[in-house]
Design goal:
Number of helices: 10
CATH topology of the largest domain: Alpha/beta knot
CATH superfamily of the largest domain: SPOUT methyltransferase, trefoil knot domain
Shape: elongated
Number of strands: 7
Helix content: 40-55%
Strand content: 5-15%
Structural class: alpha/beta
Largest sheet: 7 strands, parallel
């Protein structure tokens, strides 16, 4: 069997829901559970009680302080949300998402699904860390879906493809960059744009950053492309520094001439 995707729960609240997710994961052959800032800390004995014997995802669950750290080693991340967001990312059904995950797994790329907490789901800043959005086609009259139910639907679609065997061969593909490398590019670019006065007016800065991150995420940059872009940013920042140094030197010369 190919390497299965991990399940990332971002800010889960109830231990019982975490246990129910572990039970669903075990049903469909998933085991890598990652928790980001669980509200009541970890471990929580009630989670094991709710798992009904599906202890292994809970026993090996990893806890992270930030979503960026939880997805850092992954090359394909999909975020699940029931509400449209302002980011321009591909929107997939669970079946389409499973196909993307299966193709990534066939290439040997670690991948995962991110699920939001019970109260508020995922924020726009969370979603732009993903390559695409998974939306379950439920009745719009009642969009509230239990956390374990959402995991179950996505895990079922993965299992169906897993049982059917590997997807048709598309030939080898260059792996997209790990999210840790992509986060490094984001931070580098945003720091230099801040220094250059790009984020104006200040109140639009969060939306501008989300748009930049979404555009770069859609590009599915490789490790080499990330390094190239960081080289471009470095070269541009050095060029700006040289221009500023020349301007300062000219101003100094002008002041010296006026003084004499």
């Amino acid at each position: 069997m190919r390497q299965a995707p991990c399940v990332i729960l971002n800010e889960p609240q109830l231990a019982e829901n975490i246990g129910a997710v572990a039970r669903v994961m075990a049903n469909f052959g998933l085991s890598d559970l990652r928790l980001v800032r669980p509200r009541d800390g970890w471990p929580q004995p009630r989670a094991w009680a709710s798992a009904s014997g599906a202890d292994w995802p809970l026993d090996e669950a990893r806890v992270f302080d930030r979503l960026e750290a939880a997805v850092a080693d992954l090359r394909l991340v999909l975020a699940t949300t029931a509400r449209p967001r302002e980011t321009e990312l591909a929107v997939l059904t669970p079946r389409e998402a499973a196909a993307s995950l299966a193709e990534a797994a066939e290439q040997g790329w670690p991948c995962g699904l991110v699920f939001g907490g019970e109260r508020a789901g995922l924020t726009a800043d969370d979603i732009v860390l993903a390559k695409g959005v998974v939306t379950i086609p439920i009745d719009p009259k009642f969009r509230s879906l239990n956390l374990a139910q959402a995991v179950a639907i996505c895990a079922y679609e993965w299992r169906v493809l897993e049982e059917a065997g590997p997807p048709p061969a598309f030939g080898p593909r260059t792996a997209p960059a790990e999210h840790a490398e992509l986060m490094g590019l984001f931070g580098h670019l945003e720091t230099e744009l801040e220094a250059g006065g790009f984020f104006h007016p200040p109140e639009k800065r969060p939306a501008m950053i989300r748009n930049l991150r979404a555009a770069l995420s859609r590009a599915e940059l490789t490790d080499q492309e990330v390094r190239t872009f960081r080289g471009v940013v470095t070269a541009l920042s050095k060029g700006r520094g040289r221009v500023l140094a020349k301007l300062a030197a000219r101003r100094k010369e002008t002041r010296t001439g006026e003084d004499s």
